[in-house]
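ping. complex inputs:
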Amino acid sequence: MLEQAGARPEDERQELDRHLAECPACREADASVKAVAEHLAAWPALAVDSQRQGACLSRLVRLAKELRARAPRHAAPTRWVVRFALVGLVVALAFGLGPVGRGIYGPGAAIAWAFSSVDRWCAEGTVTPPLLGGPQTRVCNHVRIWYQQPDSLRILVDDSTEGPLYELVRRDGDTMVRDPYGLVGHGLAHEAEQLDVDELFAVRDWLAAKSIFRAPVADLGLERFGDKTVRRIKITPTGGWLAGGGGHGPEPIMLRVDAETMLPLLLETTTHGSTIVLDFEYGTDFPAES
Amino acid sequence: MPRSSLQSHMRDVELARRCSEGDREALEALVGEHYGPVVNFVHRFTGMREDAHDLAQEVFVKALRALPRYDGRAGLRTWLFTIAGNACRDALRRRRRRKEDVVDESGLALLVDRPDADLGGSPDRTALDGIRADALRRAVDQLPEVHRMAVVLRFYHDMSLQEIADVCGCTIGTVGSRLHYALKKLRKLLVDNPDAAEAVGAVEGGLSG
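pong. complex structure:
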C-alpha cells in the first residue's frame, strides 16, 4: 500500500489494482494515502539558484585541490596485489563454473562436480607474510570472494572502513572494477571480460591455461579436520604463473575437501614466497552491491 | 542485479572516484545532478529556507571529504542523502539549542522555531498556495524527525523503501511503520480535520507576527 507513491513494475501494479478491487480495507487505505499525497503535492520545490549552485561547485573544486595536495603519497604499487587477486579469481572460477570438460578425471573432477552442484559460496583468504600493495597505512593481506551461479562474482581485496583496496564485481555479463589506488589496472578486468560462461569449454580452456585442472591431482587420504572428516587433495601446477613460484619452484595447492560432499573447505598454497589460505563457505548470500 | 542497476552502480562508483580526484567535470555532474534535490530535502526536512543552501553546501563538502570511503554499496544519491540527513539532524539540534537560549533571554522562542517566519510577502509564500500549503508545511513540521524524514524521502524524492531504510539506517519494516504513523497523523491534520492544522498555523503566525 505504501509503495503506491513510488514507481512499480507494471505486473505488480496490475496485481495491486486487482487486489484493491476486491479488498475494501486496502481500498480505503489506498485512498487515504492518495488523499494525503495530494495535499503533500501542494508544497512546491525551492527553485535552485544557479549562483548558489555555482558557489557550491567552486568550493568543492577548491577543496578537492586542497585534499589532493594533502593526500599521503602511496607506496609504489606492487604486482603482488595483481597476483593475489588473480589467484582468488582463478580459484573462484576454477571451482565455480559448472560441468567439467573432457579429459579431467579423478578427485579433481569430483570436486568440480561438487562445486557445480552448489548455487552459491564464498571464500575468505589471507596471505602471509602480508603483502604491501596499497597506501602505506594499509596492508594487503585479505581477500573475500563471493560466487553465485551462473555468473556472479565479487572479489574484495583488503576491505575496511576506508573501503576496499580493490574490488571486482561481475554480474549478468557486466564487469565492474573498482581500483581506487590503481593497483591492478585493467589487466584483471580484461581476464574477467574474456570469460564467456555460455561457452563452458572455452572457460575450461581458459582454466586449463591457468594450470589448475590439467595439473596432476593426488588423493592423500582421509583425516579429521575439526569436527569433520576431510579428504586431502594435492594439486601440483605444472605451468603458468602458479607453477612459476617466483624462483621458489612449484608448490602444490593443498585442498581439504569434505569427505562426503567433496566440497572444498580449505585451500592452502605457497607461491612466490607467500602462503595463501582460503576458507570456503556455502550457501552464503551474494552481497548486494547497492 | 539488473543490468541497468549495475550500470548505474558503475557510473556512481566512477563518478565518485573522479570527484575524489578533483575532476572538475565530475564535480559539476555531481553538483548538477544532486544539488537541487539536496537543497529541497534540507528545506523540507528542517523547515529552513534561507539556510537550506548553506546546509546543502556543507553536505557536499562533507561528501567530498568522505568520497574515498564511498564503496558503491548504496547509490550515490542514497549516500548523499544519508550525509544530508545527519547534517540536518545536527542543524536541528543546534536550532533547538539556540531556541532554548532565546527563550531564556527574551521569550521569543517561536520566532526561532519557525525558520520560515520570514516568508511573509515573498514569492515563495505566494507559491505555497495560501493557507492550505502553509498548513501542510506546519503539519509536516509537527511530525517526529524520523517520520518526517521518511515522508519527505518517499513523497518528494520518490525513494524506495529500501533506499529510505539505507538513508535512515533502519530496516524496511521500520520505514513502513514510520510512514504508516506519519500518514495517519497527516491524514488527521490535512484530510479529516484541516481546520486544526490551519488553526495551528494561525496561532503561530499570530504569535510570530
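The two ends of chain A are 24 Å apart (CA to CA).
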